[in-house]
Amino acid sequence: MCRVDDDANDVPRVLKNPTMYICTKDKSRDSWHGLTAFWMLVDDTYWYPSEEVNPEEHIVATTVLNLPNFLNVSSIEANGTIFCEFDDKLFQTRLPVIRLDVQDTVNGRCTIDLDDPQDAPFSILALKAISVDRVVLLPVQTNSNTGKRLIDFLDEYNFKEVCKVCIVRDAGSLQYCLIEVLPAEDTTDIRLLISARSEAQLSVVVQLMIEAFPELLDVEKQQALDEAAEALRKEMELYLTCNDTVQIQRARVTTDLLIP
Question: Rounded mean pLDDT of 41-55?
């Protein structure tokens, strides 16, 4: 990974918008599609998606590739390049050549590995990279045994802890769903990040949690409600204080967009 320093003060600079590109060496073949993400470790516990590369931080890049087309060939090679921005300039660094044999697709070499202590953290990040997610808030109430109820919920649906993340490994409708506890904020409530392979799978986990925890709050929905309420308040305020028809119309459109 490249590092840009200030010549005078030897101050490390932050690289912006890192992006990874993968393309097959044989230009006549179909493109090799996938998803890339860069992650920053926070508090030695939680990996946040990052749009910056700071040399003072622990950064990991992941690439999840679709199965390529092996028509008439037994192996495929691809080149990789990481691009990033600094001081309005574009920098790049090449990656080692990626080689995938057709046998690799069936012998387990390219699958998620949650048993190897070295590979497990990167397998978790790969799953997170291709998942949809939602943050929910679990209020901690007096004598509610919230912690025990959460553990019971995880046990009931076979969530197992891997690298401080709870994951369903068994085949089924919840396979590879993730639940992780987010760093605490200025509250005693428990913030959970739920990740799933699709919106449908995510809705299953959220609904199961709502049934187990009626007090559960959907942070995304709550934020949408707060934004809609604020937009409506501003629109009502304009009706009382403003004579500008265009401004009122814009506020009305904003409210209509936020309130279904």
Answer: 84
Q: Residue 253 and residue 128: Cα distance in Å, rounded?
A: 35
pTM, 2 dp = 0.76
Query: What is d(CA 184, CA 162) in angstroms, rounded to the nearest whole number?
Result: 20
Instruction: Determine the Cα–Cα distance for residues 188 and 165; give it in Å rounded to an integer.
Output: 20
Reduced to 3 states (helix: H, G, I; strand: E, B; else coil), residue 51 is: coil
CB atoms within 10 A of CB 38: 24
What Cα–Cα distance (Å) separates residue 202 from each residue in 119, 134, 176?
25, 8, 11
Residue 5 DSSP one-character state: B
Q: Exposed e or buried b for every residue in 58-78, given b needs 16+ CB within 10 A?
A: ebebbbbbeebeeeeeeebeb
Q: Is the pLDDT of residue 194 over 90?
A: yes
Integer Rg of the chain from CA: 23
Instruction: Select the highest-mean-pLDDT range: 34-43, 123-132, 139-148.
Output: 123-132
**Cα 18 to Cα 52: distance, rounded to the nearest angstrom:** 7
- Compute the C-alpha angle 133/137/141, nearest 5°: 155
Q: Residue 22 forms beta bridges with which residues?
A: 80
Contact, 131 vs 196, CB < 8 A?
A: yes
Q: Where are the alpha helices (DSSP H) in the chain?
A: 120-129, 146-156, 199-212, 219-241, 245-258
User: Quick check: helix, strand or coil at residue 8?
Assistant: coil
> Residues 182, 193: contact at Cβ < 8 Å?
yes
pLDDT class for 165, splitting at 50, 70, 90? very high
Helical residues (DSSP H) of 57-119, grouped into ranges: none
Cα gap 259→115, rounded to integer Å:
46
